[in-house]
Amino acid sequence: MSAPAAPLALTLGEPAGIGPDIAIGAWLARDAAAIPPFLFVGDAGLLRRRSEAIGSEIRVESVEAADAAAVFQHALPCLVGAPAVSGAPGTVDPADTGAVIGSIETGVRLVLAGAAAALVTNPIHKKALNDAGFPFPGHTEYLGALSQKLFGIAATPVMMLAGPDLRVVPVTVHIPLADVPRRLTTGLIVETGKIVARDLTRRFGIAAPRLAVSGLNPHAGEEGMLGSEDETIVRPAVEALRAAGIDAAGPYSADTMFHKEARARYDAALCMYHDQALIPLKTLAFDEGVNVTLGLPFIRTSPDHGTALPLAGTGKARAASLIAALRMAGELARREAAG
Fold this sequence. Notes:
Layout: E1 8-11, H1 19-28, E2 38-41, H2 44-53, E3 60-63, H3 68-71, E4 76-79, H4 97-112, E5 119-120, H5 126-131, H6 139-151, E6 158-162, E7 167-170, H7 180-183, H8 186-202, E8 210-214, H9 229-243, E9 247-252, H10 260-263, E10 268-271, H11 274-285, E11 290-294, E12 300-303, H12 320-337
Parallel strand pairs: 1-2, 1-5, 3-4, 5-12, 7-10, 8-9, 8-10
Antiparallel strand pairs: 6-7, 6-11, 11-12
Helix pairs in contact: 1-2, 4-6, 8-9
């Protein structure tokens, strides 16, 4: 399978976490795992220090984006001019926050300019960014804002987690569980379902996506006995999606949606809150899960795990999820380029 014409842009992520470790691990696996060329949008010095720390010393080169693919086989390419960071393993430095945020925007700009085929983001430390005044709860929301800022498109970003045997979408994402019933609306479920169905067709090549919609309450409310939201909010959303020509079904009891036989009946599961979606995905595919942001005017994937500060610099971090994210970004970019 041929690589995309331009490299993938891999962001810095939290430099004190395992992002540098897994970037190195992915590059070392480039041939065995058939990884498309990627450009690390971050400090080359950080990668050199981290590779020495984990005992996998590699060649790192600072290059322009246009030269990344050419050097990828013999060196890990880093974007020339990326700001230096502390990146001491396990110790978050507030002074690095600007470089973390800047790497994300730079990566999106590279995609916008055609210098990168897609964006792959390393994990960020949300609390550190929040303490520094970053007004977004995570990548998903920030990328939606960048779509407006850089592309002039008012995108509605949708988080999808994808593994080999399961795709899940949380309708509400980074909010407290206590806020979910108040924030969940029929309109939000319908909008999310339409975006999921559209992008499963456009980017994943599924002609007629099948969506399974979970209930909010235990047993999908037990006909109102365990809560009214499933009948007054979720069921009307399913009916509206079906009226729009989308193969949607539910609401289903979430505790029976994820066994093997049930998974065979749908292409993606719409879940009502974060953990309802992520627990089954991470149970089934912790090392292979990929975070894909749908609804954006560009492709974005990410490993489905956090910064893992205690593992940084130990050589114990596994790169499997980043490898899966890079491979998926390359596949989506090839499909999009092919029209």
